[in-house]
Amino acid sequence: MTFKRVVVTGMGALTPIGNTVTEYWQGLVNGVSGCAPITKFDAEKFRTRFACEIKGFDVNNFIPRQEARKMDPFTQYAIVAADEAIKDSGLDLDKINKNKVGVIWGSGIGGLKTFEEEMIYFGKGDGTPKINPFFIPKMIADSASGQISIRHGFRGPNYVTVSACSSANNAIIDAFNYIRLGRINVCVSGGSEAAVTIASVGGFTAMRAMSERNDDPSTASRPYDKDRDGFVVGEGAGSIILEEYEHAKARGARIYAELIGGGFSSDAYHITAPHPEGYGALLSMQDALEDANIKPEEVDYINTHGTSTPIGDPQELKAIVDLFGEHAYKMNISSTKSMTGHLLGGAGAIEAVASILALEHQIVPPTINCFTPDPEIDSKLNLTFNKAQNREMNIVLSNGFGFGGHNATVIFRKI
């Protein structure tokens, strides 16, 4: 069968380095670190006392207070990013067929803060279950897509994908498939996470997965640096409006890029560690290239998963070299998590936005905080260290990998 073309007509972002797409892009090209001491709770006794929090954000500027109280922060973030993307798309919500508009979102954890607060409150009581009646609808991950749908009256497919840190890429690919199969015309997609919480920071530090560079948090997220010691948790949301090409063209929409392929794989190896040879990462990228019907040498830039962990970073780069061969040394590669931290289930969404903006502006955002490149990493790779680079680009690829061995890759093309 002939698939329909799918394009990006709107974007939204709420990130640790900018609360709009414009601010986010400025933070990326200027190499801004979003990492600072934690303000959301008292982290004094934690081994890790910093994170990439969003800054200067007041939800009541976007959602009425009474409504916001019924939502976990991850849902609030989702609504704000989705609203920006919808507005940016120029969609006339009074004229489009809302039965053909879906919302497919990603979140790796969902309402962790809500769950945490309710259990702490319960633990301080006499054992009587005095639970907030909104506890369950605030906590469940699908509340994000549900609330976006209710807010705008979108009646197409509506759900949240949960595949750890590949969740947003998974959601974007699902949205892509619904549109190219002709099931819907438009889909609001992306991902969000609000995991700067006691349980999250405590849990990840117990695993020894997070950086403990408390003396210099702004440089703690340092993918590919010899002295990297773990990831930095981030929070926020990213959203893209995916639209069937002819539908977008008929209404005179601004088109940022075309989504041309998506790939999946499983490491089938370990619950938290990536495959030691990067085999799952290779399969995901290979599947995406085949889906897009392009050759490896057509890719100009890869936005890596690149979390700043000692074990994860080299495996992904090994997979890139194994798959792309000599072309791996001709591409730009960078990890924007060096600036935003790791948004977990929302990471793929803000990285998709970064990839699309890179195509639009023909600028590769940098991997910051590299002071001593890891000697175990191939020095011939252009990892775009510390400073953005101008480059002609036609195709960009973005990776997202997660605990459980979940891998998802998306590919965008300039249009």
From TrEMBL:
Domain spans labelled Ketosynthase family 3 (KS3): 3-414
Show the InterPro entries listed in the entry. 3-oxoacyl-ACP_synth-2, Beta-ketoacyl_synthase, Ketoacyl_synth_AS, Ketoacyl_synth_C, Ketoacyl_synth_N, PKS_Beta-ketoAc_synthase_dom, Thiolase-like
Q: What reactions does this protein catalyze?
A: a fatty acyl-[ACP] + malonyl-[ACP] + H(+) = a 3-oxoacyl-[ACP] + holo-[ACP] + CO2; (9Z)-hexadecenoyl-[ACP] + malonyl-[ACP] + H(+) = 3-oxo-(11Z)-octadecenoyl-[ACP] + holo-[ACP] + CO2
| Gene3D superfamilies (UniProt xref) | 3.40.47.10
Instruction: Indicate the enzyme's highest-level EC class.
Output: transferase
Statement: the UniProt record of this protein carries the keyword Transit peptide: no
Q: Which domain of life is it from?
A: Bacteria
Pathway(s) where this gene product acts:
Lipid metabolism; fatty acid biosynthesis
Q: Which residues form the active site?
A: C165
Instruction: Cite a single GO MF annotation.
Output: 3-oxoacyl-[acyl-carrier-protein] synthase activity
Q: Which SUPFAM superfamilies match?
A: Thiolase-like
Annotated keywords: Acyltransferase, Fatty acid biosynthesis, Fatty acid metabolism, Lipid biosynthesis, Lipid metabolism, Transferase
Q: Name one GO biological process term.
A: fatty acid biosynthetic process
User: GO cellular component terms?
Assistant: cytosol
EC number assigned by the record:
2.3.1.179
> Membrane-crossing residues?
none
Function noted in UniProt:
Involved in the type II fatty acid elongation cycle. Catalyzes the elongation of a wide range of acyl-ACP by the addition of two carbons from malonyl-ACP to an acyl acceptor. Can efficiently catalyze the conversion of palmitoleoyl-ACP (cis-hexadec-9-enoyl-ACP) to cis-vaccenoyl-ACP (cis-octadec-11-enoyl-ACP), an essential step in the thermal regulation of fatty acid composition.
Which family is annotated? Belongs to the thiolase-like superfamily. Beta-ketoacyl-ACP synthases family.
Q: What is this protein called?
A: 3-oxoacyl-[acyl-carrier-protein] synthase 2
- Give the organism, scientific name: Pseudarcicella hirudinis
